[in-house]
Design a protein that fits this description.
binds phosphoenolpyruvate; eight-stranded parallel barrel; elongated; binds manganese (II) ion
Length: 361
């Protein structure tokens, strides 16, 4: 069984940074020129590790699947020219062996690989006792045990420099995120393994470059240790994940604008506890808004259905049933009848408004 230990953080402390660890670089290595140019622009910044996907797991065939092993040579060159450490994704033992042959410093296991214990075990066996830094992305499905299980397989293979990357989770429903963060899952992992470095991937959580700043800030407010941000010299023309990549200069601005919280032990736990609690409230509030927005969309569909069938908007019997049910359920959650009545009256009014608009359109 893997247990938290102070030494888990040692590799991160060895970087001796006054700011969170930053990993940046393109989603994919595309050409030698793109790899080198981007790396040079990230040199002399807060970036310590340069990322570039060499083999790309694509949801459907036909997309750009990565340049393959040739890209490893470009990364070696980028490392020699800039001094940045190099990071790539590995999905099987062959990738691991090529990465080790090419002196890659940091290897991460992608979200689609973490879901598969056979694949993770194969990677762990190929890496046994390595002193490379190995980062495990969360699995695409919101399963904390599976995520921890992936880390444990590496830990059991004698790997000491471990960390996790939170990149959000798939949903069938469309949300404002490409992958919803479900922050509470990462927070739970953090409270079970407070010394296991935790890195946020706002690029894959958001899927949109205009959300990178706010998600990064939220991660830092939740005491994350670092960020991995996709960065490309020409994001709009990137061969993969074009919408979420930023230029090196935008990245630098994002990093400059981040409020970094100093968490000294003298402060006690009050401030960190407050930050965590407030962040949880913020998460709940945005969830509430998202659910309310979704509910109104359903109301509009009901409006359209009623219109097509020439049925009246207000169905009093149905409404009274809903209210009674909500009062009962609310009571069990410690909510007063008065509150339930007020809130559902407001929701109902808004909902009727949406339906009426559709019916009269
Ligand atoms: C990536 O980092 O480019 C990547 C494919 O990420 P994920 O495994 O999180 O989808
Ligand atoms: Mn990507």
């Amino acid at each position: 069984m893997m247990e938290n230990h102070k030494a888990m953080k040692q590799w991160l402390e060895d970087f001796n940074l006054q700011h969170p660890l930053v990993i940046a670089g393109p989603c994919s290595a595309e050409t030698e020129e793109q790899v080198l140019k981007t790396a040079h622009e990230l040199k002399n910044s807060d970036v310590s590790i340069y990322r570039a996907g060499i083999w790309k797991p694509r949801t459907r065939p036909g997309g750009f699947e990565g340049v393959g092993a040739i890209g490893l040579k470009w990364l070696q060159k980028a490392k020699a020219e800039t001094g940045l450490l190099m990071a790539i994704e590995v999905a099987n033992a062959a990738h691991v062996n090529l990465a080790l042959e090419h002196d890659i410093d940091v290897l991460w296991i992608g979200a689609r690989t973490t879901v598969n214990p056979f694949a993770v075990q194969e990677i762990a066996d190929a890496l046994a006792n390595t002193d490379k830094i190995i980062l495990v992305k969360n699995p695409v499905n919101p399963d904390l045990a599976l995520w921890i299980g992936g880390v444990e397989r590496l830990y059991n293979a004698g790997i000491k420099k471990l960390g996790v990357i939170h990149r959000g989770f798939s949903t069938y429903e469309k949300t404002k995120y490409r992958n919803i963060p479900e922050w509470q899952i990462a927070i739970e992992l953090q409270s079970r393994f407070p010394d296991l470095p935790l890195i946020c991937d706002p690029s894959h959580i958001s899927g949109r470059r205009d959300m990178i700043q706010e998600i990064s800030q939220q991660a830092l407010d939740l005491n994350y240790d670092g960020l991995i941000i996709e960065t490309h010299i020409d994001p709009d023309n990137a061969w993969s994940d074009a919408k979420q990549q930023v230029t090196p200069s935008v990245l630098k601005q994002i990093l400059e604008d981040l409020r970094i919280r100093q968490l000294t032990t003298e402060e006690g736990s009050f401030n960190t506890d407050m930050i965590k609690l407030r962040a949880s409230i913020d998460i709940d509030d945005s969830k509430l808004l998202e659910i309310l927005g979704h509910r109104m969309k359903i109301a509009q569909q009901i409006g359209a259905l009623k219109k097509a069938n020439n049925v009246a908007v207000l169905q009093n019997k149905r409404w009274n049933e809903i209210l009674e049910k909500m009062i009962r359920e609310g009571e069990q959650k410690g909510l007063t009848e008065e509150f339930i009545l007020r809130i559902f009256k407001a929701i109902h009014e808004e909902s009727i408004g949406h339906q009426v608009k559709i019916i009269n359109s």
